[in-house]
Automatic annotation (TrEMBL), chains A, B:
This is TetR/AcrR family transcriptional regulator. PANTHER family: HTH-TYPE TRANSCRIPTIONAL REGULATOR RUTR, HTH-TYPE TRANSCRIPTIONAL REGULATOR RV1816. The keyword Transcription applies. Residues 15-73 form the HTH tetR-type domain. InterPro entries: Homeodomain-like_sf, HTH-type_TetR-like_transc_reg, HTH_TetR, MT1864/Rv1816-like_C, Tet_transcr_reg_TetR-rel_C_sf. Residues 36-55 bind DNA.
Length: 259, 259
DNA sequence: CATTCCAGTAAACACCGTTAACGGTAAACG
DNA sequence: CGTTTACCGTTAACGGTGTTTACTGGAATG
């Protein structure tokens, strides 16, 4: 009957060990090493089988680490967004997406762990990741705010493919669906399309299936982002050029930070 | 000084063993097993170290297998395209892209091997894969034919980002650049954008980072494909609706074949 | 015929995830 | 307080992986 935050001395120690496992794993990953139970255990001054007191198997540990990496990455996205005022969710979104790209390119293995792992065939734990992704909630939260503050053109429910309609009415994506009226749920389809575009171009860049010079110049990413302004109702003057300028500024900022 | 097709008895045997290695690996992969040197060797009635007479290391074998998988997949794309007349490259392209998607969803591991493996940090062998991908040549070949037969609107060279301009003038993508005048090389940028869209949506679907119902219905894929018709100059009446109908027909065809 | 080359082998190394049986220590209970 | 219980971590071991080393046998070459 003890909740996850039980105050027993035992529980606290256990929680601390959990945290150390994850942080050790992340450190190991950041240093270019492979993510292995034995390596984690060794660095913690522990033997590998001991980890099985905390994790059922290797995949569960990977999922745990992936979730935490996603959470940490989200704070970076939020920091980028925070450079723009709270009453400018569109500007914040643009900054966040640029941060997403630069994080992914700088940490390809972490990106692969979180976003390029098959989740369909995996256990329920991983399936939950579809709806519990921290970064997803953050991005979708910004989209929701844009929707509430300036509106986003979207198809009516009966214009949608039946299966898509079912998906937006009972959404399986990281979003607080109660923030959007059922009648307006068509906007979730726009959100999904936007996510697809961002995910697609970043994955292509991270995996390098494209001319390196095009990746380096961020031209493909810029083009993909621009292509999503009209469907989000953000292309009209003066908003469109303003957001394009913000994107260019964020990309330049990151380029200056790199070398 | 012997070329790769030397006619010595020795060379022929060696070539045959190479082929057997790859085919064994593909069979193993198709049966759901992991791709390991030992498993391949065992199935060939050989010990694992013997494989090192043919392959420098594991990654090289993976690359070899990936290349062959790509080649085999391309014949499937070509078969789909062949259902449409040769003077209809646009229809062939639509059919090929639908085949690409259905192949990827049906063979996620093969897809991951070929298209979701990092190639930036790898050896030169893998970097060659950027320009030698069989499937890439096939798809780009269809795009080139569309360009020659009906034209594709494209930016002039001086409208392009400098790095993109360099990339289209000395292309590092699977295409026969000599088929396109230097002055028209801006169309390669359109090709790259089209590839990005196809790659992005299919990768998203294969990795399952989206509501399963949306994947199942192919709605996201359809939307992504439709979005690429205007930039390819294929959206005008009656060509646009015709191609959309072809896409729908191909998707329905595959759906009927599945269960 | 003699030589050279080379595919393949056996043994070993250093890893990996995972399981089993066991010990000691700290919390929980009477 | 003493006793019991629960749990963290250990050691040993199994089967698996990629990879290297030294060696062998037979086929192609001179």
């Amino acid at each position: 009957m003890t909740s996850s935050t039980a105050s027993g001395r035992r529980e606290r120690q256990r929680e601390a060990t959990y945290a150390e496992i994850v942080s050790t794993a992340r450190a190991l990953l950041a240093e270019g090493g492979e993510l292995s139970l034995r390596a984690i255990a060794q660095r913690m001054g522990i033997t590998a089988p001991a980890l099985y007191r905390y994790v059922a198997n290797y995949q569960e540990l990977v999922d745990l680490v992936a979730f935490e990496i996603d959470k940490a990455a989200t704070t970076r996205f939020a920091e980028a967004a925070a450079r723009y005022p709270d009453d400018d969710p569109a500007g914040q979104l643009v900054a966040a997406t640029a941060a997403f790209r630069s994080w992914a390119l700088a940490n390809p293995r972490e990106f692969g762990l979180v976003f390029a792992n098959p989740i369909a065939d995996s256990s329920c734990v991983r399936r939950d990741l579809l709806t519990s992704a921290t970064s997803g909630h953050f991005m979708n939260g910004l989209l929701v705010r844009i929707f509430h503050e300036r509106g986003i053109p979207h198809p009516a429910l009966d214009e949608l493919d039946p299966e898509v309609r079912a998906a937006v009415l009972d959404p399986l994506i990281p979003i607080d669906a109660s923030a959007i009226d059922e009648a307006d749920r068509g906007v979730l389809w726009i959100f999904m399309r936007a996510w697809q575009t961002l995910y697609g171009v970043v994955t292509l860049e991270v995996f390098g299936h494209m001319d390196p010079r095009v990746i380096e110049s961020a031209a493909m990413f810029t083009a993909a982002m621009h292509s999503q302004l009209p469907p989000l109702g953000l292309d009209a003057e003066p908003e469109g050029p303003r957001l394009q300028a913000i994107l260019a500024a964020e990309l330049a900022r990151e380029a200056a930070q790199k070398p």
